[in-house]
Write a structure and sequence with these properties.
By secondary structure, the protein is an alpha+beta fold. Helices cover 22% and strands 15% of the residues.
Length: 136
């Protein structure tokens, strides 16, 4: 009896460009498990009408930044990889922008002292020198 291969009837065509994945839902699915307060997640998805490009912007509480990015950026890199694979399968290119939590317009929390990040506050005076020892 001839053995049937599982490849018969399968087509390897790519889906049409009009079939765009639910990027906002995918980002929520991938990012929310890392968040202490999932309701703080805001996702904006912009699809370019003239080119197959997708811009995804997300914002969340700055206290969750470390968990979302992960050690050495491993978590966020994995999220980017999944988004890129999803976009590539539908013939699109995806760009992911991550904004600071407290001020959505701020992209880099460490450079914005008023964003509520736990970096050192800016100094208004130079650091104090060590006290001098008295010699008699």
């Amino acid at each position: 009896m001839p053995e049937a291969s599982g490849r018969e009837g399968l087509s390897h065509s790519t889906p049409p460009r009009s079939a765009s994945p639910d990027y906002a839902g995918l980002v929520r699915f991938l990012v929310q498990p890392f968040l202490e307060s999932p309701e703080s997640l805001k996702v904006d998805c912009e699809i370019s009408p003239s080119r197959p490009r997708i811009w995804i912007r997300l914002a969340f509480d700055s206290s969750d930044k470390g968990r979302v990015f992960g050690r050495g950026g491993r978590n966020i890199q994995a999220i980017r990889t999944v988004l890129e694979a999803s976009a590539q399968s539908s013939g699109q290119t995806v760009y992911l922008d991550i904004f600071g939590g407290d001020s959505v317009g701020s992209r880099d929390e460490e450079s914005d002292p008023e964003s509520g990040s736990k970096s050192q506050p800016p100094r208004s005076t130079p650091p104090k020198s060590a006290p001098k020892l008295r010699t008699q």
